[in-house]
Amino acid sequence: MIQSMTGYGKATAVLNDKHIDVEIRTLNSKNIDVNFRMPSDLRLFELDWRKNIIKTLKRGKIDVQINIENAQQSQNITFNKPLVKSYIENLQDIISVRDVMDKAKLLEIAMSLPDAFQSQEYEMTKDDQIKLNTALNKALQQVETFRHQEGENLMETFKNNLEEIERHLKRIKEIDQSRVEKVKTRLKSTLEDLSLDYDKNRFEQELIYYIEKYDISEEKTRLKSHLNYFRETLNLAESNGKKLNFISQEMGREINTIGSKANDAEIQNLVVEMKDQLEKIKEQMLNIL
Question: Are 169 and 248 contained in the same domain?
């Protein structure tokens, strides 16, 4: 069953007074590209998480965002008093005696400088790590579910496109049966109109050469085979977008050859319709895992 590379998942872990939201978004990409946005305190887990995500999602542009909400954040923040006092003393040294600046103004400037505030570091326990990993896995499961649902929708679209191509191919086969006779009749009529005396055996030889040159029997057979192979690949247990892309390229080659060899206006119109359906397939193919 095919899967889309577009997906979304979100889960929450509750660690004491902290709420950690794990959000994963995926888009299509030729390879896998995982990007993390999270607090620096969690960077030590990034390597293991990255391996887990690559193993699970396989391909796509993947953005992982982890936000921490601390219910008691205000209690964990303190002033860096020695540093603030040093800032104020340095500011007083810079300001001349004639400059008028009250202590409140100096304090305001000092508090806006780097590291004026200190936050108490949170030590994550083994149980907290398990909860966080569970939240990540839950978000990954939601992404996979989303991808499967999108894949089902794409499969229906592909089936409709294939049916349209097959319908046009069937019509081409019907036209092709009478095409040879039309060519033969047209050539004979032209020679008779010119009142030329011609060797009938030579005419038949030239006609055979002409028919072989513009014969599309092999192309029709191969295109039908590619359509069936595309359907079989769609129904495989594992999604394989790259393989489907290769098959669609082969379908395009056969359709183009039919158009160039047919030498028939109606067939060429049908070829244009088939190209249109194939182009729709190729557009969606970029999003298949």
Answer: yes
